[in-house]
């Protein structure tokens, strides 16, 4: 090639007979040259839809149509006739003395200008491919992740407000888990968790009349009283009105999350223990992204969660609620946060109580732990370790209860956020809610093990962590649940880097369609392995995660959309991809 100013010689006119097309490489990108209707054109060779080589397309009357899915573009200017915001990059062409020159340098890419439009289109369509493509382009171009997250949150708020009730909390949880896990990975590995986060935020963002605050200057005391009343009456719209009115005075912002915890931790909410997670998600959302962006979703989703229809409890659920109501005065006696952890706290006693399968013994074990002076954080650590141990030991059978145990772990971990954003009394109440999940999972019939006992076994046969990790991942991919525990134990006994193992587990989990289901567990293990670094049983979390990921592995691979999107963002055509 020869350079003339900013134009680059790419071919001669003899190389391009009438109505023919060729591909040339300019500035590390594939450029399509056309001799059509007596005029030379230069466009990006990668179809903006899915990357098919456009030199294989059909040119008619100055319109280029891709042969793969039929998307059409103006050859002069690149305007797309098919997609909403997928215009084609076109380049100036100059012909001198039988030589064809193309100018690529300094031409602003339409892709750069339209990535947010593409993301908005993807969020409305809920299409995995468009979501993957939009996020892959943003990652490749180094677009600010905060700006991307702001778009996701703003869209999610409108979507939940118009289309979802209290169960919209599960979407918010998925979004936050995707963001949190992505930050634990290298930039090139973030696409799938961010795509999962975007999918959670996506959907119809319907019109809704913006609720107005109550007239007059309403005191916080009155708002707080009304919110509790409407929560008992299951009137979420009244709660939303109260919360919006509370925000008229910005000094009230710091009180709203604690008030919502007060509502959802009433014994009558026991069957909806996930509310504890969802209010914690709202607190985390506001803490990172601020009230200005997140205030409307907190008021709307928080109201729906606190004012949800709870029905009439039956059987052991009714008995559990009644028992918690009976011991409320005793629970309130623990509401003064101890200055230090209780040295007399008996972790094995709590384990025996939680696994007893008996309602009163389950709750009494928690009560005894607090009577011994245990701090909430100490009890939470134990409960997370119990769940990890169960996940590491549960039989891989017809119904092993992986997701039940995962809920135990995630709910127990979420009590830490109650400690951070609510009151200590709220956190005490939340521990009883988490304990109830252990009681509900009594059908698993797993007796507690000695968490202080080291795992037995030999070190890995591999000399370095990379090879040992590869063996574990291969075990997961081939669905060898019985063997994966031993490989993880051997890895850990060799003293290899646990962060490398956890990262490789994450990449393996997120490669397949089961990744969405495991995302919450993965995020919890990431968080809790750091927090519980001094606990002797912390490695149970890694063993349990590997077993969970292996046993639920399905052979349907959903990596195609994200893999294609990742290569598309690198401006590779379908020929390069396949």
The number of distinct β-strands equals 11
Specify the helix fraction band. 55-70%
The percentage of residues in β strands lies in 5-15%
- How far the N terminus sits from the C terminus, by CA atoms, comes to 28 Å
Strand order of the largest sheet: 1-2-11-10
Biggest sheet character: 4 strands, antiparallel
Query: How would you describe the shape?
Result: globular
What do the pLDDT scores average to? Answer: 90
Q: What structural class should be given to the helix and strand makeup?
A: alpha+beta
> What ranges have pLDDT less than 50 throughout 5 or more consecutive residues?
none
Query: Count of helical segments?
Result: 24
Q: What is the radius of gyration computed over CA atoms, rounded to a whole number of angstroms?
A: 29 Å
Describe the structure.
- It is globular and about 95 Å long.
- Helix 3 (145-163) runs parallel beside helix 5 (191-201) and helix 8 (253-264) runs parallel beside helix 10 (291-306).
- It has a 4-stranded antiparallel β-sheet, with no helix packed on it.
- It has 578 residues and is an alpha+beta fold.
- The mean pLDDT is 90.
- It has 24 helices and 11 strands.
- The chain is 56% helix and 8% strand.
- A hairpin with a 2-residue loop joins strand 10 and strand 11 (99-103).
Brief summary:
The chain is α+β, with helices and mostly antiparallel strands.
């Amino acid at each position: 090639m020869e350079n003339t100013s900013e134009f680059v010689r790419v071919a001669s006119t003899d190389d391009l007979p009438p109505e023919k097309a060729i591909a040339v490489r300019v500035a590390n990108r594939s450029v399509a040259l056309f001799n059509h209707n007596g005029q030379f054109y230069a466009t990006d060779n990668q179809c903006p839809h899915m990357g098919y080589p456009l030199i294989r397309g059909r040119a008619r009357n100055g319109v280029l149509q891709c042969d793969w899915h039929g998307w059409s573009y103006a050859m002069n200017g690149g305007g797309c006739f098919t997609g909403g915001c997928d215009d084609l990059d076109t380049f100036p062409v100059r012909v001198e003395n039988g030589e064809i020159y193309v100018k690529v340098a300094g031409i602003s890419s339409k892709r750069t200008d339209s990535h947010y439009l593409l993301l908005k289109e993807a969020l409305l369509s809920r299409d995995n491919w468009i979501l993957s493509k939009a996020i892959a382009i943003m990652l490749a171009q180094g677009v600010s992740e905060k700006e991307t997250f702001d778009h996701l949150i703003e869209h999610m708020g409108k979507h939940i407000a118009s289309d979802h009730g209290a169960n919209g909390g599960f979407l918010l949880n998925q979004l936050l888990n995707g963001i949190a896990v992505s930050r634990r990975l290298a930039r090139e590995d973030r696409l799938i968790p961010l795509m999962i986060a975007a999918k959670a935020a996506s959907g119809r963002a319907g019109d809704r009349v913006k609720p107005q605050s109550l007239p007059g200057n309403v005191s916080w005391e009155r708002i707080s009283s009304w919110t509790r009343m409407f929560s008992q009456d299951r009137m979420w719209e009244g709660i939303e009105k109260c919360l919006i009115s509370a925000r008229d005075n910005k000094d009230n912002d710091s009180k709203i999350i604690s008030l919502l915890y007060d509502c959802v931790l009433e014994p009558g909410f026991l069957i909806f223990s996930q509310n504890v997670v969802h209010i914690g998600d709202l607190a985390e959302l506001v803490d990172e992204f601020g009230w200005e962006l997140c205030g409307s979703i907190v008021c709307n989703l928080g109201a729906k969660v606190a004012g949800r229809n709870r029905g009439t409890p039956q059987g052991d659920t009714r008995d559990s609620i009644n028992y918690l109501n009976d011991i409320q005065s005793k629970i309130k006696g623990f509401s003064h946060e101890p200055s230090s952890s209780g040295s007399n706290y008996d972790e094995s006693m709590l384990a025996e109580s939680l696994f007893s399968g008996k309602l009163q013994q389950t709750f009494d074990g928690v009560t005894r732990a607090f009577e011994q002076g245990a701090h909430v954080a100490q009890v939470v650590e134990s409960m997370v370790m119990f769940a990890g141990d169960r996940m590491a030991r549960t039989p891989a059978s017809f119904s092993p209860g992986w997701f039940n145990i995962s809920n135990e772990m995630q709910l127990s971990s979420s009590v830490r956020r109650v400690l951070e954003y609510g009151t200590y009394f709220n956190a005490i109440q939340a521990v009883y809610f988490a304990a109830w999940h252990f009681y509900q999972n009594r059908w698993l019939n797993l007796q507690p093990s000695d968490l202080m006992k080291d795992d037995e076994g030999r070190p890995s046969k591999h000399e370095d962590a990379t090879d040992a990790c590869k063996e574990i991942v291969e075990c997961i991919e081939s669905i060898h649940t019985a063997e994966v525990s031993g490989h993880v134990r051997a890895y850990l006994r060799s003293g290899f880097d646990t962060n490398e193992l956890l990262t490789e587990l994450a990449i393996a989990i997120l490669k397949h369609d089961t990744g969405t289901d495991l995302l919450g567990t993965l995020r919890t293990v990431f968080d809790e392995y750091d927090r519980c670094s001094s606990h002797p049983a912390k490695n149970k979390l890694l063993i349990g995660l590997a077993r969970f990921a292996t046993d639920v592995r399905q052979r349907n691979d959903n990596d195609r959309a994200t893999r294609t999107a990742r290569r598309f963002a690198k401006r590779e055509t379908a020929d390069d991809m396949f």
